[in-house]
């Protein structure tokens, strides 16, 4: 991550939110400039945000076409003052969700245990349904 140091005091909140928040808004742009934003589960690992998706979604199409990506964590705090916005690039990982998950499966299951139970689908089935793995690499961070 060029220019982004999540260990600095200034970005401590961003690091915490990236590790703990369950939902991020994943925004891509179509060829005609139309933005497309969707809330997704994500996992922060080794300087990347990982998103698993069904293969035929708009976001996957946009990533394959080279769209820039913005990740926006939901504003928290009493007055919406916990904000983290990351801008960067994304690519489809050829290993797919199952291959990527092998690297952090236990941590992913801990993070999303309640959501997986509520969703009513075991992680293996989630990995099959949301089989496309998107690797987002941030280049710019805004946080306040």
- Give me the CATH fold name: Pnp Oxidase, Chain A
Within the largest sheet, what's the order of strands? 2-1-5-6-7-4-3
Q: Count every beta strand, where a strand is a DSSP E run of 2 or more residues.
A: 7
- Which geometry do the CA atoms define? globular
Class derived from helix and strand content: alpha+beta
Q: What is the H/E order?
A: HEEEEHEEHHHHE
User: What name goes with the CATH superfamily?
Assistant: Electron Transport, Fmn-binding Protein, Chain A
CATH class: Mainly Beta
Average per-residue pLDDT, rounded, comes to 91
Number of domains: 1
In what range is the share of β-strand residues? Answer: 35-45%
Report the helical percentage.
25-40%
Low-confidence stretches: none
Rg calc: 15 Å
Gross CATH architecture: Roll
Number of helices: 6
Distance between the termini: 19 Å
The main sheet comes to: 7 strands, antiparallel
Keywords: Oxidoreductase
Protein name: Pyridoxamine 5'-phosphate oxidase N-terminal domain-containing protein
Organism: Cnuibacter physcomitrellae
GO cellular component, one term: cytosol
Overview of the structural elements:
- The protein is an alpha+beta fold.
- The chain has one domain: Pnp Oxidase, Chain A, CATH 2.30.110.10.
- The protein is 30% helix and 38% strand.
- The chain is built from six helices and seven strands; from the N terminus they run αββββαββααααβ.
- The chain has a seven-stranded antiparallel β-sheet with strand order 2-1-5-6-7-4-3.
- A hairpin with a 5-residue loop joins strand 5 and strand 6.
Short summary:
This protein has six helices and seven strands. It has 144 residues and is of the alpha+beta class. InterPro entries: F420H2_bilvrd_red/Heme_oxyg (IPR052019), Pyridox_Oxase_N (IPR011576), Split_barrel_FMN-bd (IPR012349).
């Amino acid at each position: 991550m060029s220019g982004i140091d999540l260990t600095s005091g200034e970005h401590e909140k961003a690091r915490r939110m990236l590790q703990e928040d369950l939902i991020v808004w994943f925004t891509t742009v179509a060829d005609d400039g139309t933005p497309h934003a969707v809330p997704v589960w994500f996992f922060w690992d080794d300087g990347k945000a990982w998103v698993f998706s069904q293969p035929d979604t708009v976001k996957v199409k946009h990533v394959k076409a080279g769209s820039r990506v913005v990740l926006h964590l939901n504003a928290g705090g009493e007055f919406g003052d916990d904000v983290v916005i990351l801008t960067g690039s994304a690519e489809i990982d050829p290993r797919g969700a199952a291959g990527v998950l092998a690297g952090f499966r236990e941590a992913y299951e801990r993070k999303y245990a309640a959501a997986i139970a509520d969703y009513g689908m075991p992680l293996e089935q989630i990995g099959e349904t949301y089989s496309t793995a998107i690797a987002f690499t941030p280049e710019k961070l805004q946080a306040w």
